[in-house]
Amino acid sequence: MKLKPLIAAMLYFALAAGANPVTAGPLAADQRSALLELREGGMRKLVIHPDALPARQVPFLNGDGAETDLDQSRGKFRLVNFWATWCAPCRAEKPTLDALNKTLSGPDFEVIAIATGRNSPEAIKRFNEQIGIESLATYRDPKSEAARAMGVLGLPVSILIDPQGREIARLPGGADWTTDSSLAVITGLMNAYR
């Protein structure tokens, strides 16, 4: 991707978000079209919803084994990634999610990586150590209840949730979340839904 179109697109979203916030309604057609144009490589699989969809809130477990849910981080954008220790594409993707979390994590954004299915805490710890995960917290969905509730049919799947708890985009399969395209699409969606 050429740098000038990327900068122009980011500027467009910053201005459009301030002038015409869409948090109460659907994503404007021209905004959605511009976001779709930013998708390259693995990001081409990203489905950007024309209307925000309600995201089901089903409990999952934190690193201490206590129940939590997405409402605990309401008010920020969450990229919720469902993965498993046995999933080869997850092994390639998860370090890029860790890097994305390091880059964008803060009061407005967080990556929530949930190991779904039979993934013991020990196996998750070993997996994370082997691939160098540093910034992602450990979450588990041992009975795949959260994954089923959110319509996850295969792994990995990443779902972008807005601050109001609505699904605004979904990516089936793995992707590199450190590319210019990934960052442009994520920040563009965040600006559009602020």
Question: Which helices and strands appear, and what pairs or packs with what?
Answer:
Blueprint: H1 3-19, H2 29-38, E1 47-54, E2 60-61, E3 67-68, E4 77-83, H3 88-104, E5 109-116, H4 121-131, E6 139-141, H5 145-149, E7 157-161, E8 166-172, H6 180-192
Parallel strand pairs: 4-5, 5-6
Antiparallel strand pairs: 1-8, 2-3, 4-7, 7-8
Helix pairs in contact: 1-2, 1-6, 2-6
Task: Explain what you see.
Mean pLDDT is 89; it is low at 11-24. The strands form 2 sheets. A 6-stranded mixed beta sheet has the order 1-8-7-4-5-6. Strands 2-3 form a two-stranded antiparallel ribbon. The protein is built from 6 helices and 8 strands. The radius of gyration is 16 Å and the shape is globular. Helix 1 (3-19) runs parallel beside helix 6 (180-192). The protein has helices spanning 3-19, 29-38, 88-104, 121-131, 145-149, 180-192, and strands spanning 47-54, 60-61, 67-68, 77-83, 109-116, 139-141, 157-161, 166-172. Strand 7 and strand 8 (166-172) form a beta hairpin. By secondary structure, the protein is an alpha/beta fold.
Count of distinct strands: 8
Shape call = globular
Binned strand content: 15-25%
Sheet of most strands: 6 strands, mixed
Order of helices and strands: HHEEEEHEHEHEEH
Runs in which pLDDT lies below 50 for 5 or more consecutive residues are 11-24
Cα end-to-end separation:
26 Å
What's the helix count? 6
Q: Record the strand order, biggest sheet.
A: 1-8-7-4-5-6
The radius of gyration over CA amounts to 16 Å
Mean pLDDT: 89
Structural class, by secondary structure, is: alpha/beta
How much helix is in the residues?
25-40%
